[in-house]
Amino acid sequence: MSGVGQTLVDPAGNTLYFAEQETGGMIKCTGACVSVWVPATGTSSETKAVSGLGLMKRSDTGQEQLTYQGKPLYTFKLDNGPSQSKGNNAKDSFGGMNFTWHAATTGAAAAPFVGYVLRAVVRTE
């Protein structure tokens, strides 16, 4: 992905993002926000795919959402498939809350993709 580096992606190759405003385990993207920024869900076994992946329970839906280094992860509705990062450095507002979004990146070596077992892998471009 040009200008982004080693990027976390879901099993379909879609870029995963985090919001600067969601720190300390606080999920603020709710309501209309999740219609554009879709929470990345996963299981505890899938978090072993990449060091730093984890899970947190969303208070609005009760779903387990993937996190990277404690930051909740999302896909972006306007990305039309793998290798797109239209949401990187995007700014928007939902319910009076302003958000700045970034592609989730890691300095780790690329992880192998082993089918759907991995919920997030590192793509290097």
Task: Describe the structure in your own words.
The protein is mainly beta and 125 residues long. Helices cover 0% and strands 30% of the residues. The protein contains no helices and ten strands. The chain has strands at 7-9, 17-19, 37-39, 53-57, 64-68, 71-72, 74-76, 91-94, 97-103, 121-123. The relative contact order is 0.34. The model is unreliable at 108-125 (pLDDT under 50).
Task: Summarize the entry for a quick read.
With 125 residues, the chain is an all-beta fold. The protein has strands spanning 7-9, 17-19, 37-39, 53-57, 64-68, 71-72, 74-76, 91-94, 97-103, 121-123. The strands form four sheets. The chain has a three-stranded antiparallel sheet, with no helix packed on it. It has a three-stranded antiparallel sheet with strand order 4-5-6, with no helix packed on it. It has a two-stranded antiparallel ribbon with strand order 1-10.
